[in-house]
Design a protein that fits this description.
The longest helix has 22 residues, at 366-387. The protein starts with 17 loop residues before the first helix and ends with a helix. Strands 1-9-8-5 form a four-stranded mixed beta sheet, sandwiched between helices. It has a four-stranded parallel beta sheet with strand order 4-2-3-14. The chain has a four-stranded antiparallel beta sheet with strand order 10-12-15-13. By secondary structure, the chain is α/β, with parallel strands linked by helices. The protein is 39% helix and 13% strand. The structure holds pyridoxal-5'-phosphate (PLP). Residues 61-63, 87-88, 90-91, 140, 166, 168-169, 190, 192, 203 line the site of pyridoxal-5'-phosphate.
């Protein structure tokens, strides 16, 4: 009998120790948004990324982390913030929370991330048009692929604009041996259910200094002034991570290396199984400077060569009870950001039209990956028959 059970794109994957930390939170009544698990999780993350302890703040989501970073970078109503267009909307939404305006920049073809040339063009044109430099730059390490950080940081430095890295999908990835999330003034991480590790929902802000981390904590806990009563001189937020969820995170940190290894293994297996298909290419480390965690394995289909489209693949997968997803629709094509300035060409647009994310979660077996690959191999076989 053929196996028709659902294959999901990327599911949470528990390691076994998570409940021990969660139980501890209950046993000690630390069922609040602070406590030993939050502290421990932040310490574990700092150790993993190789940054100073006390510079990472665990938050309720990656989106909250981006929001609090932009706030601290002085982004206010009317200001402009440059953001990679090819990304999930959470990279850009916090710009709007602050009443600021996003300026979108295209990707380059190697990494699919922010193009340093288009970035420079955007900054120069915004200065020309508005008389002011944008307040921040948000490059994204999309699908776990490091952005070209040397070049992006060089442009940012030249114009003295701070960088906020969106490393939501990039825990475990590195550029020139340095962990993604440690290049910018700030970086966000996400522990949403589909990420490299999960806290069911959660995120963190990686700060450059302990001072910034303290400030982050202040804003994340309703911006309470130092007084015995409740006094507030700033608008605050309720963005801290629960000590219960942080317990899941501590357990997950124990298996993070295994998760990264398995996602890379899955990526390799897809490449092996699909290597003979013409017109099919993979999101690939451009050279040895890049070390993607391959959070999701992504393919691009060139219909003229393959004889089938990305949509053919997606629909065939759906029929086979397999979840796939088109690559992110660029932000400059999103109705909600209509009219926002955009710089670059059609790299992001083309990727959206022709690209697909394949099931890549670390819970998947080799048999699952073979079943997914089989769907594409069958499409290829049919295309061959039609063309002969
Ligand atoms: C690129 C990117 N940025 C930001 C986020 C936001 O993270 P969260 O869902 O934890 O708010 C996500 C994931 O959801 C993401 O994929």
């Amino acid at each position: 009998m053929t196996d028709n059970s659902k294959i999901w794109l990327s599911l949470a994957h528990m390691g076994g120790q998570e409940q021990r930390f969660v139980q501890e939170a209950f046993d000690t009544n630390w069922v609040v948004p602070l406590g030993p698990n939050v502290d421990g999780f932040e310490r574990d993350l700092a150790g993993y990324l190789g940054v100073e302890p006390g510079t990472i703040v665990a938050l309720s989501s990656g989106t909250a982390a981006i929001h609090l970073a932009l706030l601290q970078l002085g982004v206010q109503a009317g200001a402009e913030v440059i953001c990679q267009s090819f990304t999930f909307s959470a990279s850009a939404n916090p710009i709007a929370y602050l009443g600021a305006k996003p300026v979108f920049v295209d990707s380059e073809a190697d990494t699919w991330n922010m193009c340093p040339t288009a970035l420079r063009e955007a900054i120069e044109d915004r200065i020309k048009q508005t008389g002011k430099a944008p307040k921040a730059i948000i490059p994204v390490h999309l699908y776990g692929m490091p952005a070209k950080m040397d070049e992006i940081m060089a442009v940012a430095k030249e114009y003295n604009i701070p960088v906020l890295e969106d490393a939501a999908e990039a825990l475990g990835a590195a550029y020139k041996g340095q962990a993604c999330g440690t290049f910018g003034e700030f970086a966000c991480l996400s522990f949403n259910g589909n990420k490299m590790i999960t806290t069911s929902g959660g995120g963190a802000l990686v700060c450059r200094t302990k001072e910034q981390a303290k400030r982050t904590m202040f804003f994340a806990t309703q911006a309470r002034d130092n007084a015995p009563h409740y006094q507030h001189s700033h608008i605050g937020y309720n963005y801290r991570l629960s000590n219960v969820c942080a317990g899941i995170g501590r357990g997950q940190m124990m298996v993070l290396d295994e998760h990264v290894a398995r996602r890379r293994e899955i990526n390799n297996l897809y490449r092996e199984l699909l290597s003979a298909i013409p017109g099919l290419s993979f999101h690939t480390n451009p050279n040895e400077d890049f070390d993607s965690n391959y959070w999701l394995t992504c393919i691009v289909v060139d219909v003229a060569v393959a004889g089938f489209t990305r949509e053919d693949v997606r629909l065939a997968m759906e029929a086979a009870n397999i979840e796939t997803r088109p690559l992110w629709k660029p932000m400059h094509w999103q109705p909600v950001f209509e009219g926002a300035p955009y710089y670059g060409g059609t790299v992001a647009e083309d990727l959206f039209e022709d690209g697909l994310c394949l099931p890549s979660g670390s819970t998947l077996t080799d048999k699952d990956i073979k079943r997914v690959s089989e769907v594409i191999l069958e499409l290829h076989a049919k295309a061959l028959v039609i063309s002969t």
